[in-house]
Amino acid sequence: MAPQPTLINSVVRALSLLDAVAAADGPVPAKRLAHATGLPVATAYHLLRTLVHEGYLLRTDEGYVLGDHVDALAGARHTPVPPQRTHQILQQLHVELGAAAYLSVLDDGEIRLVDIVDSPAAPRTDLWVGFHDAAHATALGKAVLATLPEDERRDYVESHPLADLTPRTVTSRKVLMHQLAATTDLAVDREEYSLGTVCLAAPVPAPGISAAVAVSVPAARAGSVLGHRHELRRAARLIAMAGRP
């Protein structure tokens, strides 16, 4: 008989919570998750806080839903460049600019986060709304959409809600389409997704790839990151080259 593997109970419990959230039709309260997984309520709360902090779950007023990091893991399988190489490029960008760095791709008609590199000194934006409902309010989403032909861009904009996330969010499809048409090599989110945060994104200049790389910083640092556009463009070019055969 083969020896039984040594399992880390906390990992098994956390995964059971993820499975329970994924199987639900909507947000699930913590107490219901604890009952469904057979965990003490205190243990469930502790694990849920950890999963939220790491981006695997998102806490809403109604309960818990899957977070963007789950999409990032799924999206990495479809990334047109080797994930380990893009991660190194994002890591370098993070260090150079002292900012959280992100990579997104258009996958089967949806914009997905593929990777994030951050640190305690330069944490990621609180991803409280998924990209399906927020691409119009993010530099990453706008940079990806700007790479599409006009008809595909219009189809995306017309088939997705333009949620009003902050007072600065553009919710007019006409205005958004005009902005996207005017976007050339950079897209900016000036507190449109989250008040107090500014993001700058550059599309990946590679044929057959709809992707973008971005950085986010507190609004007070907007001038400094806007002054380092060259590093962002270079990272986008490196990612494009990493995907070549």
From TrEMBL:
Source taxon at top rank: Bacteria
HTH iclR-type domain span: 8-68
Pfam families: HTH_IclR, IclR_C
Gene Ontology MF terms in the entry: DNA binding; DNA-binding transcription factor activity
SMART domains: HTH_ICLR
Keyword presence, Lipid biosynthesis: no
Gene3D superfamilies assigned to the protein according to its UniProt record, in alphabetical order: 3.30.450.40, Winged helix-like DNA-binding domain superfamily/Winged helix DNA-binding domain
Keyword Transcription (UniProt): yes
Alphabetically ordered keywords of this record: DNA-binding, Transcription, Transcription regulation
InterPro entries: GAF-like_dom_sf, HTH_MetabolicPath_Reg, Tscrpt_reg_IclR_C, Tscrpt_reg_IclR_N, WH-like_DNA-bd_sf, WH_DNA-bd_sf
Domain IclR-ED: 68-245
GO biological process, one term: negative regulation of DNA-templated transcription
SUPFAM superfamilies reported in the protein's UniProt record: GAF domain-like (SSF55781), Winged helix' DNA-binding domain (SSF46785)
Protein's recorded name: IclR family transcriptional regulator
Organism of this sequence: Georgenia muralis
